[in-house]
Amino acid sequence: MDNGGIEDNRTNIQGNWVGSELTYHFLPFSIGDITLGLEGKVDLRNLQQSYDVSPVAIEYLRTSNPNRSLGLIFQDEKKLSQRWKLDLGMRIDKAAYGRDFLSPRAP
């Protein structure tokens, strides 16, 4: 800077969210233990800022895009023996921002 002053640049990020998960576990017939689940999340606040305070107040970035997402879970657990079990499933996620996707599960 030509005047020898100090540049004061600040970045501010604020985020708050709430979420919940509901699962139901049951044993239908002899196909294994089935778990069905639903998970939801909602951003209450989602803010990102970048700005100069001095020598001149300038705002470079201010964005707020609160997201909402929902996940559906299906999981099957089969007991193969006293010591072994097979646990497989899938999860489908849908969000307000971003692409929907399917992911395999093998916990």
**How many independent structural domains?**
1
Overall mean pLDDT score? 91
From the N-terminal CA to the C-terminal CA, the straight-line distance is 56 Å
Shape: elongated
Structure classification: mainly beta
Tell me what you see in this structure.
The chain has strands at 8-26, 33-54, 58-63, 68-79, 85-95, 101-105. By secondary structure, it is mostly beta strands. It has one domain (8-105). Strands 1, 2, 3, 4, 5 and 6 form a 6-stranded antiparallel sheet that branches. Strand 5 (85-95) and strand 6 (101-105) form a beta hairpin. The radius of gyration is 24 Å and the shape is elongated. The N and C termini lie far apart (56 Å). The mean pLDDT is 91.
Helix and strand topology:
Elements lengths: L7 E19 L6 E22 L3 E6 L4 E12 L5 E11 L5 E5 L2
Antiparallel strand pairs: 1-2, 2-3, 2-4, 4-5, 5-6
Describe the structure concisely for a colleague.
The chain is mostly beta strands. It has no helices and 6 strands.
Which tags fit this structure?
107 residues, mainly beta, six-stranded antiparallel beta sheet
